Amino acid sequence: MNRPCANASVEKLLAKDVAKERITQENADKVRSMLTPTTKLEDLSSSDFIIEAVPEIPDLKTSIFSKLVNIAPAHAILATNTSSISITRIAAATTEDPKDLSGPSRVISTHFMNPVPVQKGVEIITGLQTSQDTIDTSLELMKRMGKIAARSTDSPGFLANRILMPYINEAISCLENGIGTREDIDSIMKYGTNVPMGPLTLADFIGIDTCLAIMNVLHQETGDSKYRPAGLLKRMVDAGWVGKKAGKGFYDY
């Protein structure tokens, strides 16, 4: 995302929160003054806590962390927002010597639930190398952010997506097989199980491409056929219908 797009996204979120009286205009102005958009990793050289949130592409994430460890201060915590990729694998990218834990010990996942400004849940996932200091600092920061943290081990999909993604995938299969319309599928789950939104709407908000990437990781890492991505899920990604961010997914935006 370039800086103009980042600024526009922030302005939209702040304006929405002010309009809904979640925050005051004064608070919105204060938040805005604290943000410095950038497209350069080098600008993170004085950061104490860095959270990466690029797409769920393993090589992209490991490449970023291999660079961050040489840019960020030696005390900085390097967090990822990954929802499925091994934290141990990402941490290993920060060093060429497996015995050197100076970088890997500072890697952790802070997986924020979507939509982040609304949902309080955050998943904390540790790798084999993650230190207790990194865990404690991350938990304290999440608490100060008003989030409610849940711990998970470094297993494919962790807790949230190990449960959530098969649910979304099955909803897509129901739509693909004509068992129900998109409206009926979302309606029965929203009003029948008291969730904020139905699975197809949620997939649009998460990003259908992200859902596919997570299902692929689950399927590949576990070898279990129950995690095989639905055919319609794959075709929608091929069509570029990846959800709200594209203006089209299971619904139009």
From TrEMBL:
One Pfam family in the UniProt entry: 3HCDH_N
Q: Which GO terms describe its molecular function?
A: NAD+ binding; oxidoreductase activity, acting on the CH-OH group of donors, NAD or NADP as acceptor
Query: Where does the record place the 3-hydroxyacyl-CoA dehydrogenase NAD binding domain?
Result: 7-151
Recorded hits in SUPFAM superfamilies, A to Z, give: 6-phosphogluconate dehydrogenase C-terminal domain-like (SSF48179), NAD(P)-binding Rossmann-fold domains (SSF51735)
Give the keywords, sorted. Oxidoreductase
Q: Which family does it belong to?
A: Belongs to the 3-hydroxyacyl-CoA dehydrogenase family.
Protein name listed in UniProt: 3-hydroxybutyryl-CoA dehydrogenase
Q: Which organism is it from?
A: Trichophyton rubrum (strain ATCC MYA-4607 / CBS 118892) (Athlete's foot fungus)
